[in-house]
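As described in the Methods, two query proteins were run sequentially through the folding procedure within a single session, without resetting any intermediate state between them. The first query and its resulting structure tokens are shown here.
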Amino acid sequence: MTDIEIQKIREQFPILEKKIGRYPLTYLDNGATTQKPLCVIDAIRDYYLNINSNVHRGVHTLSQLSTDAMENARQKVCDFIHAREKSSIIFTRGTTESINAIASGYSQILGIGDTVVISAMEHHSNIVPWQMACERSGASLRVIPMSYEGVLDIDAYEDILKNNRVKIVSVTYVSNVLGTVNPVSQMIDLAHKYGAEILIDGAQSTPHMPIDVEALDCDYYAFSGHKMYAPTGIGVLYGKRKSLEALPPYQGGGDMIDHVTFEKTTYAPLPFKYEAGTPNIEGAIALGVAIDFLMEIGMEAICSHEKELMDYMTSRMKEIDGMVIYGTAPQKSGAFSFTLSGAHPTDIGTLLDNQGVAIRTGHHCAEPIMDYLGIPGTARASLAVYNTREDIDRLVDATIKSKMMLLG
């Protein structure tokens, strides 16, 4: 994308004009959450001004308008990830709830002797729900190892599949710490070869690259709206019809029922079987608008722009003496984790913030990665479509200045 195109995109994010003290804001914490364009902010305001009502339950005009707007957003999600049918799109609070929904269902069908497989680079949201499912069911949890560079051992993964009664695999598409883009197509094919289902955590992939769940052939795919320019509290669980219909529902309550008596309840068809209670209506509508925003730019263009920035950031940060980079896989996206020899990540993040540069520090909800690397945490700069080379230059200059203050 040209500088003019990026500037037009940035104009849709007024918060990027904010100053932190006397410094312009350089926002590089997009892996945690992205900023929101005016079109998304306006969509939330418009909903409450004009069509606020509950969905799927009323015959009055506002309820019909609200329902139509939410179901239109569901269709946008379906088209965005190239799903076959709209009923396979379930609105959740985010990736965490989406994974919990599947893990909860599996906890009721797993048994002793069954195995759940995750990888060594998972976010806590893709570890803890499966630990809970195994504790409830008596199933075992196995972990795909990775190299120090942040590359999964696919041979070891296949050995686990061969030698265990694996029922479900759940892996991240892109590591939120290391930026590694995992070979999920190969991993999906291997899971299916050995009779297992597979869930893909798309929280860090969906904002950065084109997604086609039909081409991937994954059984489940989860992602969050707030990491792709939509509000917090809205996310998506995609699942194949046969898979979603086979699992018990995650929650009970209103709108997920077909018929209720005190003796027995039957459940609504997809997607409503998994959408108990009043949903985040305005969040779903705003997610649809965020998808419009992304599609207008083009996911291929976004992917190309962010790759160029990642390459530039890697090159510039390597120039700094004492720079230690974590995650050097050949295929990377979004996240750049680092430390400075002799400096604590929290100190780095604090001094960068004092210069207007917003990054994330700590274990990034991925403590097992930090234990494996033998460090308390990292500093992480993460990219979005509105970032520029100037942002990277500010990061580099602020890091050099911080190093001088911390280490002399």
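Immediately afterward, the second query was submitted; its sequence and tokens are:
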Amino acid sequence: MKTFEEIPVYQKSKELCIEIYKLDNTKYQKDYGFKDQIQRAAISVMNNIAEGFERGSNKDFIKFLYYSKGSVGEVRSLLNIAVELGYIELESYNKFQNDCLEISKQLSNFIKYLSTK
């Protein structure tokens, strides 16, 4: 891979981030602190992948992939509150949770792969 944009887990995390930014619920839109936090966590997932890639070493890249994995955990945690507060429907919650779990799994596999190189 020549750019971080080519990395499948980056692409998947970017899709998740866009979907989080597009959430449109009146209660959600008015809860600025919550909205800001989940958006910041979602964008952190993809940005840590990009930053780690650009560092140029596997050691640094792996460290940033772990940061990304932590951020996807934060998104999942915030989604638990979002569904309870009625900011998102159960169907959306389930899709987001599945996406987060898939991203976390991809990150873990990528970390394992890079650790063997």
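The radius of gyration is 15 Å. We note this only descriptively and draw no conclusion about the first query from it.
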